[in-house]
Amino acid sequence: MIRVLIVDDQIMVREGFSVLLGAMPDIEVVGEAVNGREAVAQVAALRPDVVLMDIRMPELNGIDATREIVAADADAKVLVLTTFDLDEYVYQALRAGASGFLLKDASARQLADGVRIVAAGEALLAPTVTKRLITEFAKSADTAPRPPAVDRVGDLTERETEVLVLIAQGLSNQEIADHLVVAESTIKTHVSRILVKLGLRDRTQAAVFAYEARLVQVGR
């Protein structure tokens, strides 16, 4: 069973997600939190496999809560809940350590699949919206000084750099394999090596890193 904590200050949202996820045979909702501060405490007490995290909440917002949760447990998996009018916060949440994001109007199947993907250790990067979100709100990174960590790009091989760029564009392993005309297993190996060399925890951080390192041009 995948144990999930739902964090949202709106009771209807919490109850709705709880009902949808509770109907899944492989998912169990183990708790709810009404703000970020409560979420941090609940994560420490319940150790859920996945945290569904709203962004705008009282006392402690979802971005800061995500940062605290990930700082306390590097293996914590946070799935951010957002709406299109809150896109500006998604990039910040990903940088804070979130494993991905879901739109609040996601279907029951999309919600359950998102939880499963993140629980399995993958990053939830929906190709249809991820590129637009990251490119739009990476603009601050495009004009800001390059973080020292981006110098590690030089440790990557030419093929690994190519794979990193495609990750940032929201492509799955299979799509990258098709694009490069190689086996999916080969791409998985490249991804693993990229994460190790750059000291990143998942594909989401890799995507953000690619924009910060100017490997992908904003707006493209």
What do you see in this structure?
- With 220 residues, the protein is α/β, with parallel strands linked by helices.
- The chain has helices spanning 11-22, 36-46, 62-72, 87-96, 108-119, 127-137, 139-143, 158-168, 173-180, 184-198, 203-212; strands at residues 2-7, 27-33, 50-53, 78-82, 100-103.
- Strands 2-1-3-4-5 form a 5-stranded parallel sheet, with helices on both faces.
- The longest helix has 15 residues, at 184-198.
- The mean pLDDT is 83.
Largest sheet: 5 strands, parallel
Quickly count the domains: 2
**What distance separates the N and C termini?**
40 Å
**CA-atom Rg in angstroms:** 17 Å
Biggest sheet, strands in spatial order? 2-1-3-4-5
Number of strands: 5
In terms of quaternary structure, the protein is: single chain
Please tell me the CATH architecture of the largest domain by its name: 3-Layer(aba) Sandwich
Order of helices and strands: EHEHEHEHEHHHHHHH
Helix content: 40-55%
Please state roughly what percent of the residues sit in beta strands, choosing from under 5%, 5-15%, 15-25%, 25-35%, 35-45% or over 45%: 5-15%
**Considering the protein shown, what is the CATH homologous superfamily of the largest domain?**
Response regulator
Please tell me what the overall shape is.
globular
> Tally the helices: what do you get?
11
| CATH top level assignment of the largest domain | Alpha Beta
Question: How would you concisely characterize the structure shown here?
Answer:
The chain has about 220 residues and is an alpha/beta fold. The chain has two domains: about 1-125, Response regulator (Rossmann fold); about 140-210, Orthogonal Bundle (Arc Repressor Mutant, subunit A).
